[in-house]
Structure formats: C-alpha cells, structure tokens
Amino acid sequence: MPQPTTLSRRPRTVADTSDDGPGVRTDTLTAQAYQKLRHALMTGALLPEQVLTVRDVADEFGVSLTPVREAVQRLVVEQGLEVLNGRTIRVPRLDIETYREILKIRMELECLAAKEAAPRIANDEIERLDTVMQAHLAAIQAGDAHQTLVRNTDFHLSIYRASNQPMLVRIIEGLWLRVGPTLNLLFPQYCGSLTGHENHLVAMDALRRRDGDALGQAMRDDLTHGSRFLIRLLKP
C-alpha cells in the first residue's frame, strides 16, 4: 500500500494547529477544506491510490482536524475519496467498467453543456479562455503534467459553467471529481502530443462563431481521443 503523503506531495510547511482561532466558523473552514480537496481531485493534483491522513491535510491547510474530517466525509459520499480507517484516506482507482460508464455519461452531458454555453458565454470569457488555452499549450511543451491538467480542467469547466445550467454543471463536476486523478495516466505519452491543444483550437473557433453544435463536437472529440488512450491503460 502506498505510504501516507501530503496533499501536494511535497514537505509540509504549515505547522500543526489544534485551534482555528477565535471568530472562525467551523462550517466555513469545512467548506474551504472541501473546495480545496475537491479541486485537487478534479485537476489531478492527487493520484489514484494516493494515501493521505486527516492530520497531514489539516496541517497543510492550516486548520484543525474537524473541518478536514467533515470535508472528507462529503467527498466520501461523492465517491471522490475512500476511508481506510478513521485517520487514513485514499484516492480510489477507477476500474475500466466504471471509467467506461462515466465516459458515456460525460459524452452526453458535456456536449449538452457546450451547446448551451455557445450562445451565452461572454466575450471577455472567450478571450480569457484563449489565454487558458495558450497556458495549456505551454504546459504541454514544458512537460508539466499538473499544470496541463489544471489548464485543461479550467478550459472545459469554464465552458460548461457558461451554460448557466447549474444542475447540469454540478453533475458534470461530480464526474470530473471521480475521473480527475485517473487523468494522470495520460502522461507522458498522450499529453506529450498536441492532440488536446488541437481540439481546444477547434473549440475556440466554435466559441467565437457561437456554434453550439461545433463546440459540442469539439468536446466530444477531445473526450474520445483521450479516452482511447486511458482505456488501453485501464484494461486488466
């Protein structure tokens, strides 16, 4: 079994605290811990089968144990994390059948969100996404796996959020929560290529033309190309 590790896989720099200080609400700290852990899962900052402890996460976030425990409980319910015992947490490893099921759902829902987003997305957001796309390309060229996943997540989810369909977006984000750590398997082979960037170029062109069908197809193509590689790696 992998040894417990900190959230960011680097030495801790935040001292352990037993109290969060006066005037700080535990529910607010829980929400912050939840969002940080959720973002780490969605962007692949955590690896499949990576082991954490509640105390290590609390130390890194600079909070007491209670907010982290409550955040972890929420993420266990959402199947983003699993608890090995009262103090040790593990990132689940997706089996191929679960991945295939998630992929089928993502194909439908993400294409739908993209189609809804095309006529609604603000012009300044399109320009920001162009910057995100360029940062994604730079991360690929630099061989920076984590930043490649961070920029890719920002690009996709920002488009889906522009659909102004909060229930749809929440479901999509829940699927990214499950699959995010597995995307690390795309490195270095698949993400060493420019296939993902080329799909994003097509998506940007569709966004500028406000073409929902073309944008939906670009999202589908991006999912299809990456999933073919992942499925080969996930096969028993």
UniProtKB/TrEMBL annotation:
Keywords: DNA-binding, Transcription, Transcription regulation
Region of interest (Disordered), residue spans: 1-25
SUPFAM superfamilies reported in the protein's UniProt record: GntR ligand-binding domain-like, Winged helix' DNA-binding domain
UniProt xrefs under Pfam families: FCD, GntR
GO molecular function: DNA binding; DNA-binding transcription factor activity
Annotated ranges, domain HTH gntR-type: 27-94
InterPro entries attached to this UniProt entry: GntR_C, TF_FadR/GntR_C, Tscrpt_reg_HTH_GntR, WH-like_DNA-bd_sf, WH_DNA-bd_sf
PANTHER family associated with the record: HTH-TYPE TRANSCRIPTIONAL REGULATOR MCBR, TRANSCRIPTIONAL REGULATOR, GNTR FAMILY
Protein name as annotated: HTH-type transcriptional regulator McbR
Native species: Variovorax paradoxus
Record lineage: Bacteria, Pseudomonadati, Pseudomonadota, Betaproteobacteria, Burkholderiales
